[in-house]
Structure formats: C-alpha cells, structure tokens
Amino acid sequence: MSEKLTFEKLKQLANDQDLDLSTMQIKTIPVRDLAKLPRITHLDLSNNQIVEIPAEFCSKLKQLKYLDLSRNQIGFLPDNFGELSNLQKLNLHSNMIEELPLSFSKLTKLKWLNMKDNQLDDSLTSTAARFENCEFAAPRVVEFVKAQEALHKKILQNQKVTLEKTDAAKKAVQDQEKAVKKKKKKAKKSGQQENLKSESEEDHANGITR
Fold it and tell me: Basic and acidic residues composition bias: which ranges (predicted)?
C-alpha cells in the first residue's frame, strides 16, 4: 500500500534541489504539493505505479531539469509536456508510451533521453530507442518531433485551403441557384402579366368590361 505523501513528508524527503520519490508505490503525482517546492529541479519518480502525467504537472513544475519517470505504467505524455522546457535529462525507460506530443519539440535544452522499452511506433523507434547513447538520442528525437510538428502544420494549412475552396465553390453554386430561381420567378411573373394583358385586350374587343 502506498504511503500518503503530505506536503510535510515531501519537505522531509527533499534534499536541497533533489527529491527522490522512487519506489514508493505512487499512483497519483501530488502536483499541488510539489509546486510548493520551487527549489526542486531534480525529481525522481521511478519504480512507481504512475499511469498518467497530469497537464498541471507540466505547467506548475517548469523549473525541473532532471526528471526520472522510468519503470512506471505511463501510456502517453500530456499535450503540454513541452512546457517543461528546462529539462536537460529525461528518463522514460520501461513505460507504455507509443508516441510523443508535438510540444516535445520545445525541449531544446534536452541533453539526455532514454526511451527504451516502450511501445513506440516504428518511426519513433528508429529515431530514439535504437540509440544506446542517450546523449545522442536526445537531440535526434527533438528534431524528429519538430519535423512532425511542421508536417502537421502543413497538413492543417492544406486542409484549411481546401475547406476555403470548398466553401467558395458551394457559395458559387448557391448564388447560381438563387440567380436561376430569381430568373424563373421573373419569367413567371412576366408571363402572368402577358396573360392578363391578352385577356384584357380580348375582353375589350368583345366589349366586356371587367
């Protein structure tokens, strides 16, 4: 059974800028209490039972330089993971991660990265997991995600252009249909007036007054 991590307990465990919370059967990261310890730049959460990294972890712990999340059960990283922009060393070894969020491209200070023994897709595996040298893997993975981000933006831009063209084409068709309806209505009205004129002339010829 995991020990309840109160703020007082965290303060006791903190050693200057280091906080070791490894092997404590943690399931939920105590983000709010951790945020009260702004001096902590090295955080070890390895060998726990963590399944999810909450988004507020990234937004409230931006000072982190070293983060060890190895040997947990993490399936994905939050979309705002890139807010941890001061990270220099990141250990994600032995989790269940399949892909990285596009914001990972913001980790430009990252110098060391271990992503071995995850469930990465083939393209990411060829970029990260095959490197024994974690220092070599770090910049390669960041550049890989940057390329993915650029591709994603290009796809979105193309979709936007296509949508705009589709909307313009729809509007052109609608305008054409309106013009045809207006023309038919005008022709119908003109035809009715011609009929009334003919009837009037016929009645006049027959000496009938309406």
Answer: 196-210
